[in-house]
Amino acid sequence: CKLDGTEPKQLSKDAQGDFESPSWTPDGEFVLVSRKPPTGLHEIWMYGIQGGSGVQITKSPAEANTPPQQRVRALGVVASPDGKYFYYARRTGNFSYNANFPIWQIVRRDRTTGDEDVITSAPGSAFRPVISPDGSTLVFGTRFDTETGLRVRDLATGEEKWLKYPVQRDDQESAATRDVLPGYAFTPDSRYVIASYGGKIHRIQVATGEASDIPFTAKVSQDLGPRLKFASRVEEGPVRARLIQAPAQSPDGKQVVFSSLTHLYKMDLPGGKPTRLNATGTHEYQPVWSPDGQWIVYVSWAKEGGHIWKTRADGSVPVDPHSGVLPRSGLVAGLDPHRRAAPAETGSVDGYQWFRGIVHGDGRRLDSCRRRRCDPHRARARHRPSSFHARQGPHLRLL
Questions:
Q1: What CATH superfamily is the domain 18-214?
Q2: Extents of the domains making up the chain
Q3: Positive/negative CA dihedral, 85, 91, 93, 97
Q4: Which class is 245-390 in CATH?
Q5: Is the peptide bond before 270 cis (omega within 30 degrees of 0)?
Q6: pLDDT digit of tens for each residue in the chain (399 aa)?
Q7: What is the pTM for the complete model shown?
Q8: Half-sphere exposure of 18 (CA within 13 A, CB side)
Q9: What value, to the nearest 5°, has the Cα angle with vertex 231 and ends 229 and 236?
Q10: Which distant-in-sequence residues (6+ apart) come within 8 Å of 308 by Cβ?
């Protein structure tokens, strides 16, 4: 079509298929493009501006039953100014999870013989090549660390440097259905590269890498719907909890204790009214009952760390069973009528696990207890410098 978009003319006749990154041959008689059929990968095709079925340039050396991950894919083709070579990015296979870099490299194809040479070995891949109008310079995209930039190479000397870093994120990890990087171009005098990134259009000087913004405005006529802005009042009264955490039923089945909105509540079953269990001023979680129903044990958490607490089931003032503060990887344990020490969630504190006496508050620091040795009927660990064993007992008073 013309520059103003008038007089469009169809070049390809594919019923299905995708076309990416078209470019012109130097004589203006053909359009080069990456074509992807519904069941294949991208190949380079050439279409005459007068129409026709097109000419396939690349053909992956694969049989019909070759897996897609073993086929060759080509994207972003451009012709050299003398028309002797095609430059494009090539990879083996399509999208794959956790792909190892490099994925893409730049290939130069002799238009007469069909010979291909890989001309880059960039660790972060190389893609979206552009040749300057004077034929002296190659620019391509590559990844370095976590960002994408443009590299510039002198084709006569092989000298290479950064043109601009960073620009914008490439699309290597996905299927790159719109090429790996948005298009950019040289100015006719080969002195500048025009590229878009950061929401603006930039003119980058090839010699120095200095970039300047190209002002751009556009008149837009767009129908807008009604504003979705409504006045609303935030209630300041009681908040209705819609989620409870870690509900635990009492041994006699008459009560339940749970955590909600960072505090503990207890209610009679069935249908009782929840009441706050205590008021420690901390965030309270994971309550469990003692087998005799007299105690409730729970954990608290704050930015400084956490504690294990016990309180009477009737809501008496809670007692901290130890004075230390557990680091963030502390042990959370539960009481079980068949076990004296019953870890519910295991964790380590500087390579150790902690067991504490719930009633008496005594505690020992134990070596890490391997899971295969922590059977349902016995918890055993070694205490330095003397030996200490936690075994099944009749009083069920050890956590």
A1: TolB, C-terminal domain (2.120.10.30)
A2: 18-214, 245-390
A3: negative
A4: mainly beta
A5: yes
A6: 888 889 999 999 888 889 999 999 999 999 999 999 887 789 999 999 988 889 999 988 666 677 767 788 999 999 999 999 999 999 988 777 888 999 999 999 999 999 999 999 999 999 999 999 999 999 999 999 999 999 999 999 999 999 999 999 999 998 899 999 999 999 999 999 999 999 999 999 999 999 999 999 989 999 999 988 888 888 888 888 889 999 999 999 999 999 999 999 999 999 899 999 876 667 899 999 999 999 998 888 888 778 888 888 887 766 655 434 444 444 444 444 433 334 434 444 444 444 444 433 333 333 333 333 444 344 444 333 333 333 434 444 444
A7: 0.59
A8: 14
A9: 135
A10: 297, 298, 299, 321, 322, 326, 330, 333, 356, 399
Question: In terms of residues, how long is the chain?
Answer: 399
Give the chain as a 3 state SS string: CCCCCCCCCCCCCCCCCEEEEEEECCCCCEEEEEEECCCCCCEEEEEECCCCCCEECCCCCCCCCCCHHHCEEEEEEEECCCCCEEEEEEEECCCCCCCCCCCCEEEEEECCCCCEEECCCCCCCCEEEEECCCCCEEEEEEEECCEEEEEEEECCCCCEEEEECCCCCCCCCCCCECECCCCCEECCCCCEEEEEECCEEEEEECCCCCEEEECCCCCCCCCCCCCCCCCCCCCCCCCCCCCCEEEEECCCCCEEEEEECCEEEEEECCCCCCEECCCCCCEEEEEEECCCCCEEEEEEEECCEEEEEEEECCCCCCECCCCCCECCCCCEEEEECCEEEEEEECCCECCEEEEEECCCCCEEEEECCCHHHCECCEEECCCCCCCCEECCCCCCCEC
Structure tokens at 185: 């171009």
**Do 245-390 and 18-214 fall under one CATH topology?**
yes
Q: Report which of 393, 302, 299 is spatially closest to residue 341, judged by C-alpha positions.
A: 393
